[in-house]
Design goal:
Radius of gyration: 14 Å
CATH class: Alpha Beta
Structural class: alpha+beta
Order of helices and strands: HEEEEHEH
Strand content: 15-25%
Shape: globular
Pfam families: FeS_assembly_P
Protein name: Metal-sulfur cluster biosynthetic enzyme
CATH topology: GMP Synthetase, Chain A, domain 3
Number of strands: 5
Organism: Lentilactobacillus farraginis DSM 18382 = JCM 14108
Length: 106
C-alpha cells in the first residue's frame, strides 16, 4: 500500500520536475533555477511560470513536452499551461548550490 502524499501540490510538482533535465547542461530545471512559479486552479489547470537560460533556446519544445509529461502524471492536473518569461532574467545566482558544484561554479 502506497503512502498518501499530503504535501502541497507545488512541492510535489517541483519534485517531479527534477526529472526534467536540460540536455545541454545535464542539470534539472528545478536546480537550474528556471522555475519561477507553479499554480493549480480548481479546474485542474496547472500554470507553470518559468524562464530559459537564453532567449530562443533550441530546447524549448523538448522541455515543454517533458514538463507536460511530468505534470500530467498527477490525477488533479487536467491541462498544463507553460508561461515562459524573461523577467526577471535568469542568472547563475538562481541555481542551487548542488547545481553550481556539479558544473564547477564556485
Amino acid at each position: 500500500m502506497s503512502e498518501v502524499d499530503n504535501r502541497p501540490f507545488k512541492e510535489k510538482a517541483l519534485d517531479v520536475l527534477e526529472n526534467v533535465i536540460d540536455p545541454e547542461l545535464g542539470i534539472d530545471i528545478v536546480n537550474l533555477g528556471l522555475i519561477y512559479g507553479i499554480e493549480l486552479d480548481d479546474k485542474g489547470l496547472c500554470t507553470l511560470t518559468m524562464t530559459l537560460t537564453i532567449a530562443g533556446c533550441p530546447l524549448t519544445d523538448y522541455l515543454n513536452e517533458a514538463i507536460r509529461e511530468e505534470l500530467t502524471g498527477f490525477d488533479e492536473v487536467k491541462d498544463v499551461y507553460i508561461n515562459v518569461v524573461f523577467e526577471p532574467a535568469w542568472s547563475i545566482d538562481k541555481m542551487s548550490r548542488e547545481a553550481k558544484l556539479e558544473l564547477g561554479i564556485h
